[in-house]
């Protein structure tokens, strides 16, 4: 008897389990249909794609027991896909049927006026204006969303579905349902387990209500009012930790200058800026919107030798309740004993350890090179369905796949007329006037240049199904000169998925610059945070002072 947790084997459910533990609750996992009878309350943290969730539930014989559980009137809390399965269907997976409790279909966000997925911290406006502390959801707080599909809030066309709406949120011009509530059912589109203290409050409020036997409570009367939402998506600040083993074999956070991580003075030792888990916890408490852990020497190791990195992710996920991206070595590999491990298996291990997104570097470059060999009308080429990006996006949803790009400038004559002529940038600053360049892709942490431009790569990975681009710059990395705004604008013009600008931040003003002068969704820094030169709070204050929407 007690609180149960439905995990059908996809995505990061570890983080929700960690939040429950942090809040002092014990729970059990649903492992068979019988467990639904034992559950007195149930959380379904649906992670991944709608179709794979439904297929996995059906295959495990859990879909009908789930329907029966909900019908029994016992408390149910669905998160993300756990909310979407309550609807009839989803454009994400037209062949799959949802539970159909809410008579409406989940549709795709339009990317005409904005990037998709909707990824980041946005608000939630309660529809019941009388009760501002409803279910722990607070109108003054931000919550973490990551989804390409949404339930449109449309009381005129779908009045019955709109009755379920508990809060709504605006992204671009679209107003969607960010939480639903009716009788024993509560569900959120956002991820409370990834929404810091504000999210823990929502989980805690639901747990105490469900303990008070909500099942016997009458349906809550709704006092709907016309929502007045506005797009509240904030710009994200990401703290990145490059992790590698030092010469003593310990995993440390390191930081290079233009990707060279060895000390110039101390006999070429790997720079040690701290322990990954301790730094991750520090950045979470300091208000980072997202954290990124990159295993920067993974290309030399097999996944088995990577196990320490999995332990780092597990430990970090116990302390950190904002999204965690893991990169390095997400590719097909062979274990030392000869066992083949697909990129999908490797990613799955990281998701189960507590990662929300995986970041793919070198393998993305190789995939786009292969794709360009297949002619297509748009000139971008065609994927063959086997790349890491395609397989992981198919199973876990495109929002779980980041591509980390490591471009380097290639200087050319001002009258260059070669194959990259449409992508040439001409310097305008005092230092760069009279120079022209294009951006070439590299693999293996910048060690090898490939015959591919950053624009080809960005357009290719978007088509393959990546949900976000993490845009580094080898030229700016560790220099403190500010983000390469030309690079960010160039890539922005070519893709409609969210982007994280990275490399070169030297002050809080550089973050204001990148958000004022480009249309990027997030900005990442490493060195200045590790060395304590700039605090995350200082960056947030500068953004707010400059009227850039930021979470504080
Ligand atoms: O190719 O899929 O195994 O992934 C390897 C990953 O490791 C890629 O994401 C690649 O960017 C990263 N990587 C590999 N070598 C290095 C290195 O530094 N020698 N680090 C490396 C990339 C760049 C950023 C850095 C920003 C901000 N690090 O992560 O954090 O440039 O730094 P700054 O604020 O101090 O300027 P695969």
Automatic annotation (TrEMBL):
Domain Glutamine amidotransferase per the UniProt entry, residue ranges: 6-198
Segments for region (PRFAR binding): 361-362, 404-406, 477-478, 503-504, 526-527
Record pathway: Amino-acid biosynthesis; L-histidine biosynthesis; L-histidine from 5-phospho-alpha-D-ribose 1-diphosphate: step 5/9
EC number: 3.5.1.2
Enzyme class: hydrolase
Residue numbers binding L-glutamine: 80
Residues annotated as binding substrate: 329, 472
Source organism, top-level taxon: Eukaryota
List of catalytic residues: 80, 191, 193, 242, 406
Alphabetized Pfam families for the sequence: GATase (PF00117), His_biosynth (PF00977)
Database matches in PANTHER family: IMIDAZOLE GLYCEROL PHOSPHATE SYNTHASE HISHF, IMIDAZOLE GLYCEROL PHOSPHATE SYNTHASE SUBUNIT HISF/H IGP SYNTHASE SUBUNIT HISF/H
Name under which the protein is recorded: Imidazole glycerol phosphate synthase hisHF
Gene source species: Antrodiella citrinella
């Amino acid at each position: 008897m007690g609180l149960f947790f439905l995990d059908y084997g996809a995505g990061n459910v570890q983080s929700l389990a960690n939040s429950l533990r942090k809040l002092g609750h014990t729970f059990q996992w649903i492992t068979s249909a019988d467990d639904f009878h034992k559950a007195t309350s149930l959380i379904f943290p649906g992670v991944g794609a709608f179709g794979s969730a439904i297929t996995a539930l059906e295959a495990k014989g859990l879909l009908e027991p789930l329907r029966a559980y909900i019908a029994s009137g016992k408390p149910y809390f669905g998160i993300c896909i756990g909310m979407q399965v309550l609807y009839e269907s989803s454009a994400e997976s037209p062949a799959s049927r949802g539970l159909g409790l809410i008579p409406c279909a989940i549709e795709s966000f339009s990317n005409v006026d904005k990037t998709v997925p909707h990824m980041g911290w946005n608000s939630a406006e309660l529809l019941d204006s009388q009760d501002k502390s409803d279910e722990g959801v607070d109108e003054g707080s931000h919550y973490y969303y990551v989804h390409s599909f949404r339930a449109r809030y449309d009381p005129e066309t779908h009045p019955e579905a709109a009755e379920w709406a508990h809060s709504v949120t605006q992204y671009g011009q679209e107003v969607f349902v960010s939480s639903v509530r009716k009788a024993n059912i509560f569900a959120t589109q956002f991820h409370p387990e990834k929404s810091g203290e504000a999210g823990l409050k929502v989980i805690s409020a639901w747990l105490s209500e469900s303990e008070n036997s909500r099942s016997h409570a009458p349906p809550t009367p709704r006092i709907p009012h016309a929502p007045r939402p506005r797009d509240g998506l904030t710009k994200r600040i990401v703290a990145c930790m490059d992790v590698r083993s030092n010469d003593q074999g310990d995993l440390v956070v390191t930081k290079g200058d233009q990707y060279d991580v060895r000390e110039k003075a101390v006999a070429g030792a790997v720079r040690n800026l701290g322990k990954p888990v301790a730094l991750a916890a520090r950045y979470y408490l300091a208000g980072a919107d997202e954290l990124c852990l990159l295993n920067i020497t993974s290309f030399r190791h097999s996944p088995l030798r990577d196990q320490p990195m999995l332990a780092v992710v597990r430990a970090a996920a116990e302390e950190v309740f904002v999204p965690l991206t893991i990169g390095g070595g997400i590719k097909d590999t062979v274990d030392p004993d000869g066992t083949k491990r697909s990129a999908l298996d490797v990613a799955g291990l990281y998701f189960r350890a507590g990662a929300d997104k995986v970041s793919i570097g070198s393998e993305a470059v190789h995939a786009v090179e292969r794709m360009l060999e297949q002619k297509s009308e748009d000139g971008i080429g065609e994927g063959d369905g086997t790349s890491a990006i395609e397989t992981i996006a198919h199973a876990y949803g495109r929002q779980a796949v980041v591509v980390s790009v490591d471009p380097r400038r290639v200087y050319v004559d001002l009258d260059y007329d070669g194959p990259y002529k449409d992508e040439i940038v001409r310097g305008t600053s005092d230092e760069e006037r009279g120079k022209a360049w294009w951006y070439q892709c590299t693999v293996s942490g910048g060690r090898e240049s490939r015959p591919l431009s950053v624009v080809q790569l960005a357009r290719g990975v978007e088509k393959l199904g990546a949900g976000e681009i993490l845009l580094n710059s080898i030229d700016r990395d560790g220099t403190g000169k500010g983000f390469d705004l030309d690079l960010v604008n160039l890539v922005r013009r070519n893709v409609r998925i969210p982007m994280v600008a990275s490399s070169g931040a030297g002050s809080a003003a550089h973050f204001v610059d990148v958000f004022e002068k480009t249309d990027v969704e997030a900005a990442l820094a490493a060195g200045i945070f590790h060395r304590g030169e700039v605090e995350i709070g200082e960056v947030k204050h500068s953004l707010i002072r400059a009227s850039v929407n930021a979470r504080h």
